[in-house]
Write a structure and sequence with these properties.
7-stranded antiparallel β-sheet; globular
Length: 151
């Protein structure tokens, strides 16, 4: 398959990114000079200079039928504490934020933000999931994702 891209974005100052080794790129499409993953996922770790860690999962898929953002948001906001609409690289998107309890690696309260949109240039649904311990940090990473490039 060669070199492929999921998307590109800048992380906030004071944060660094590192691979977590979880990558699956099943299909890709050439758009312009770049090859974009159209089906697959990648998990990235983010660490702050203070030692805080956040997980970022990027999941992309070619929907079988037209992607309905309103339907996605209605379904997701049932479990969400907050939600909203946003424009991402010229595309309509939506996000949700909620507090969750997870037992892995040990029982803790986590903050989970999910951002979803459809890129018509690469013909793929893009969903990003940010999980961390502090709501402020998750919101900071989420805000940086609002400025990402998907094509």
């Amino acid at each position: 398959m060669g070199t492929v891209r999921f998307l590109s974005f800048e992380i906030p100052e004071g944060w660094s990114a590192f691979p977590l080794g979880l990558v699956d790129a099943e299909r890709s499409r050439l758009v312009g000079a770049d090859r974009w993953v159209t089906s697959g996922y990648i998990v990235i770790g983010l660490a702050s200079s203070e030692g805080e860690r956040i997980s970022l999962k990027v999941d992309v898929a070619e929907p079988l039928r037209a992607f309905d953002l309103g339907r996605w948001l209605r379904k997701q906001r049932r479990r969400a504490d907050s939600w909203g609409n946003v424009e991402i690289n010229g595309h309509a998107g939506a996000y949700t934020i909620r507090e969750v309890r997870r037992r892995i690696p040990r029982r803790r309260e986590w903050v989970e933000a999910t951002l979803c949109f459809y890129c018509d240039k690469t013909e793929r649904r893009i969903r990003l999931e940010v999980i961390g311990e502090r709501k402020e940090s998750v919101a900071q990473i989420l805000n940086s994702l609002f400025k990402l490039s998907c094509h």
